[in-house]
Amino acid sequence: MANKKISQLTAKGTALAATDLVEISESDGAGGYVTKSVTGANVKSGLQPTLVSATNIKTINSTTLLGSGDLAVQDTLVSATNIKTINSNTILGSGNLVIAGGQIVPAVSNTIGTTITGATIAMSDSVLIPAGTFSSNCQIDLTWIPSRLTGASGTMQGLIYINSTASLTGATLMGTSANMTTPSIVTNNRCTRFIAVRSNVATLVLTSGLASSDFSPLNPTETLPFNNSSDIYIIFAINNVSGVTTGRNVGYRIIGYNL
Amino acid sequence: MSNIKTSKGKITFNKTEYVLQNFTNDSDESVSYALVSDSQVHIGTDKGIILFDLSCTINKETFTDINLFTAALY
Q1: Which residue among A121, A164, A206 places its CB closest to the CB of B24?
Q2: Residue among A120, A173, A225 whose CB faces B49 most closely
Q3: Environment class of A30 (CB within 10 Å of its CB; exposed 0-12, middle 13-18, buried 19+)
Q4: Is A132 exposed, middle or buried (0-12, 13-18, 19+ CB in 10 A)?
Q5: Does A196 lie at the interface with B, CB-CB under 8 angstroms?
Q6: pTM given for the model
Q7: Which pLDDT band, with edges at 50, 70 and 90, does A149 fall under?
Q8: Most C-beta atoms within 10 A of its C-beta, which of A75, A191, A200, A257?
Q9: Which of residues 197-236 of A touch B (CB under 8 A)?
Q10: pLDDT in the model for residue A217
């Protein structure tokens, strides 16, 4: 090997073996060098091990990062370019996005309810307002249409109740229509109810004389639980006061305004 | 069958306690209750007007007369 250039040496022709020796010049730290040898094993131990997907290099959603070519990734989000805005406000960035109160219409129906006969208060129709539909502070406009179908005489009323189940037993009265007494023809009332809910407690005005009480300056006379964390059923009932009428509910609309 | 538990001016139904109190009826009179049919009654409470009927028991007792049913609540 003496007096030979390295390019003149015989090529090994195979990969470095652990027992092979390589000559090195080790720095003595003072500007000089000392000739030493290291084994093939010494050399390999200083190298990064072969990458094995999911073993010593992570995957992205179970897809290997190994191989050639680009890895497809989502473009950088740019507000109003590839991600929409809300009322011209960006939704990019950290922290909480406060959504201001707004109108919610959880139920509109023109359903013809069950016809009620006999001197009783019975359910003609009902609707479920799922838990979380409204906030704990909200205002609700409720409109319903009771219809007096038959009866040569007698009074019929359309009533609304709320309950945690679709049952009148234990239900809370929320409104009573005006007395419907017109004989021999079908008559319909459009009834409204305004409900102010603060911290899941609702305030109502008087439940009788609805047409006047909803629009008069009467003080609230009731408070009732209106828990937005639980299911709430609005029940549309018919009261055939004297038992000689028949009636049913023929539509309703519930609009809430979360505050 | 749901049970109503009574206790000195209060009733408990479905784990909710109601304080019995007057309300204004259709004739603008202050009343504690209003019979609405042979089997149903509106009861005034601090949580609004509640509809009860003879499907309920009162302190586990069954009633067939709405007047006796109502009297048992007070």
Answers
A1: A206
A2: A173
A3: exposed
A4: exposed
A5: no
A6: 0.69
A7: very high
A8: A191
A9: 204, 206-209, 221-225
A10: 40
